[in-house]
Amino acid sequence: MMRRRSVPWIYRWSRTIIGSIAIVGAILTGYLTFEKLTGSQVACTVGCDLVLNSPYGQLFGLPLSLFGCLAYLSMTTFSLGPLLIDAQNNRSLRNQVEDVTWLLLLIGSASMAVFSGYLMYVLATKIQVLCPYCITSALLSLTLLVLTIKGRDWPEIGQIIFPIIIAGVITLVGTLAVYANVENPGGKMTQSGKITSPTTLPQPPYGWEITTTSGSAEIALAEHLNQIGAKMYAAFWCPHCYEQKELFGKEATEKLSYIECAPQGKNPNPQACEEAKIQSFPTWKIKGKTYLGTQELKKLAEISGYTGPKNFKYTMR
Q: Least packed by Cβ within 10 Å: which of 28, 76, 179, 184?
């Protein structure tokens, strides 16, 4: 009597393992997305916030972690979805769905691994900080690719190599195209007097250089805010903080009561930020009230009781 060939354990459990890892990745990137969209700080060192708020941390105006979360959720669906089909009553359908989803898992994991590899290159050579979340996500992506290759008895080696090459090339070309403008000059003022966001990486301890010049109205408002005890809590790596400085201009910004919350910034005072329970940047404390985010100068004038000239030079886009 012939003995039935035993199925390697990795073949039997690969989909479950892949799905479990993808769920972990979805939770991690989902957390980062939530913190980014709510303007909160992630539970990490300054390096994580620097990465999330850098030009590399967003795609098409949305947090990059959101796309990562969607990718992990897709991998979860591809891996665990076929397991919901009754193999005994629908063997043919189950096999068809498995064949299709294995190919999708291979393409998806290859694309994620290549994209994560590019981000690791950026992290090491451009941003030059340590981000545990980024490294963990990269390791998860690479693990998904290895498990997808090892987790199935692929009929031919070409079924593995060609999809990986095609997916990798397309992902790399698309990634380079999307981030092609990141190395261009940073934020600036347009001819209409509207402030744009920075596109280069901030350099500690100053961040981005303020390119706008202050008018008499901006300087008078900054002096008034300082006199009434208004405080601006910010971080050198925060793009919105930079936009706030650009609205005031270089001369007026120097007159503000500015609290640097990032330990790597100039004259940092993270303890003051912690005592003030600062959760996002910039945060204004004016007359006992808290105002989150970049504020137009006209609004700052209104809420602070400023009565001087209001012919401010710059506005947000």
A: 184
